[in-house]
Specification:
With 271 residues, the chain is α/β, with parallel strands linked by helices. It has eight helices and twelve strands. The protein has two domains: 153 residues, Response regulator (Rossmann fold, 3-Layer(aba) Sandwich), CATH 3.40.50; 99 residues, Response regulator (Rossmann fold).
């Protein structure tokens, strides 16, 4: 792998992007990035941070460094095809040591096999999908299929998605003082992992999940679930659902019970 230790040291020092780039002389080592900078303005800060970090340390052990920022945006969104093409451009340049990115797991799934076959190091500060690193039963692409060379070239800084359950349980127990929770899942097999992590962490703090239910289809009325939760003394509900489903219907029907949900689940206010 292309001097992997060096790119990891740089990328972990920097978590960001934009900046450095064309030097007066050809650099010996290029740190690249692949980010949707045109589509997502908030990503520009990440780009600028990477450029700043490389600019702060323009050489390492006598080798000149530079930063190459690539944009995988297509219109108002990121593009898997643009991302794959950007990785191929990096691979074609022997000076590219490694890349910071991708920004999302969806793009990562198409970039990883290309980069892995070329032993191009990838350090992502934001990808969270479990199947990129853990062979869960619901994975359509396994971690092994994303690494055709048999070696690992991909590293992420953020934890995988289900560990949000662990963070929520810690918050519920230590900040809210809750000890008895019910949980429901509208997120399929992956949602069970969130609840499992929640239950394990909650138990460490003296709490327990007293009732749990999985919904294949989102009900319009959660009264049956809430009756069971209240009967078992639940003082909180942990809800796992995707944004296009309706966990917030449960919140609207609850009274006297704390509603906990994944950070990505957003309840729209009524107008």
């Amino acid at each position: 792998m292309r001097a992997l230790g060096a790119v990891l040291a740089l990328a972990l020092t920097a978590v960001g992007c934009q900046g450095a780039g064309n030097a007066a002389t050809r650099p010996d080592i290029i740190i690249a990035s692949d980010l949707p900078t045109s589509a997502y303005p908030d990503v520009l800060a990440l780009e600028e941070a990477i450029g700043f970090a490389v600019g702060q340390q323009p050489t390492i052990e006598g080798y000149r460094l530079a930063y190459w920022s690539l944009d995988n945006s297509l219109g108002a969104d990121q593009s898997q095809l643009r991302g794959r093409e950007n990785v191929r451009r990096m691979i074609a340049d022997p000076s590219v040591l490694g890349m910071v990115g991708p920004h999302t797991s969806n793009v990562g799934r198409v970039e990883m096999p290309e980069a892995n076959s070329a032993h191009l190091a990838m350090v992502s500060p934001t990808t969270t999908y479990s199947c990129l690193t853990v062979p869960e039963v619901f994975c359509k692409q396994t971690p092994a299929s994303l690494r055709p060379s048999g070696s690992n070239n991909y590293f992420r800084i953020t934890p995988r998605d289900p560990l949000q359950g662990r963070a929520m349980a810690n918050y519920a127990a230590t900040k809210l003082g809750l000890r008895r929770a019910a949980a429901f899942n509208e997120f399929g097999p992956e949602g069970d992992l969130y609840i499992n992590e929640f239950a394990k962490e909650f138990a460490i703090h003296g709490g327990g999940v007293v009732y749990q239910q999985t919904f294949d289809d989102t009900p319009s009325n959660f009264s049956a679930f809430l009756i069971q939760a209240k009967a078992r003394g639940a003082d909180a509900i942990y809800a796992v659902a995707s944004r296009d489903q309706y966990a917030c219907k449960a919140a609207a029907q609850m009274a006297g019970i704390q509603f906990l949900r994944r950070p990505n689940d957003k309840c729209r206010s009524r107008r």
